[in-house]
């Protein structure tokens, strides 16, 4: 399906499964939806809506604008395209930041926010240096992989794939998981990435943002993987600010906890999506 924004940009969108609407916001910035496995996992619990953000993946390449406000407006276009009054809103990594921004702007349209592997509301400078150290250490578990990653140009797809292996706690299967993330491959939108990261550097970590979070009257479920190389302490700031929040840390899982802890991840989402019987589960 295609949702058309007010400025004429075509956004790729997909709907599958049955149940109440669950809208997924992918990470990046500049990447694309990689939630095919998750949509299949949850298809008997929810009507799962996936979309590629502006200028990314299967959506129309465009000249921006690359701002959080524009992406929030695009997400609302997707909501209206599928005729939703309210939705459970799920965001992963950068998508968690986008989903939080949307919920702060439109709390009446979000029944629950599911915030996965985000970086909280502190400035990026608070967590980025430890993340960089952890990235090198995780890649260094395979010296050849680390050496290859360091020698490749920054925009080489192979370098991105090798970097993604560090997002998994299970070293043995990390390359397999990363290859699955990269299939299908779409060019990373580095212009989008640079602009939105620069915007975040100037606007995240402010007293205004924290105050907005303290007033948010929407239930929030925070899910982290215990082995995520992005310091989970950064998310403490968000947890402390939110008045209606529950936080879960899944052991032996990295940045994509639904991949490495699928049963625990699904169980947690079922607390939001509702439980009904299904074969093989009690």
From TrEMBL:
Keywords, in A-Z order: Hydrolase
Gene3D superfamilies named among the record's database cross-references: alpha/beta hydrolase
Domain (AB hydrolase-1): residue spans on this chain: 21-260
A GO MF term: hydrolase activity
Source superkingdom: Bacteria
Family assignment from sequence similarity: Belongs to the peptidase S33 family.
Protein name: Alpha/beta hydrolase
Lineage of the species this protein comes from: Bacteria, Bacillati, Actinomycetota, Actinomycetes, Kitasatosporales
């Amino acid at each position: 399906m295609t949702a058309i924004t007010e400025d004429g940009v075509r956004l790729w969108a997909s709907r599958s499964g049955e149940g109440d609407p669950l809208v997924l916001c992918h990470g990046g910035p500049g990447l694309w939806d990689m939630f095919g496995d998750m949509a299949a996992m949850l298809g008997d619990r929810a009507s799962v809506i996936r979309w590629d953000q502006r200028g990314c993946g299967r959506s129309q390449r465009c000249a921006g604008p690359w701002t959080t406000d524009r992406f929030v407006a695009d997400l609302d276009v997707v909501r209206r395209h599928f005729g939703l009054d309210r939705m459970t809103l799920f965001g992963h990594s950068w998508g968690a930041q986008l989903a939080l921004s949307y919920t702060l702007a439109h709390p009446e349209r979000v029944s629950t926010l599911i915030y996965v592997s985000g970086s909280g509301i502190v400035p990026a400078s608070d967590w980025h240096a430890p993340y960089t150290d952890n990235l090198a250490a995780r890649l260094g578990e395979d010296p050849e992989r680390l050496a290859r990653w360091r020698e490749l140009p920054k925009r080489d797809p192979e370098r991105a794939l090798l970097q993604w292996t560090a997002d998994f706690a299970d070293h043995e299967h990390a390359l397999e998981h990363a290859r699955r993330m990269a299939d299908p491959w779409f060019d990373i939108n580095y212009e989008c990435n640079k602009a939105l990261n620069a915007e975040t550097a100037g606007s995240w970590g402010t007293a205004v943002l924290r105050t907005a979070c303290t007033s948010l009257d929407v239930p929030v479920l925070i899910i982290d993987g215990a082995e995520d190389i992005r310091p989970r302490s950064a998310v403490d700031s968000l947890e402390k600010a939110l008045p209606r929040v529950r936080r879960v840390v899944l052991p032996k899982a990295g940045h994509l906890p639904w991949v490495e802890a699928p049963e625990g991840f699904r169980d947690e989402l079922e607390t939001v999506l509702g439980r009904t019987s299904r074969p093989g589960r009690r």
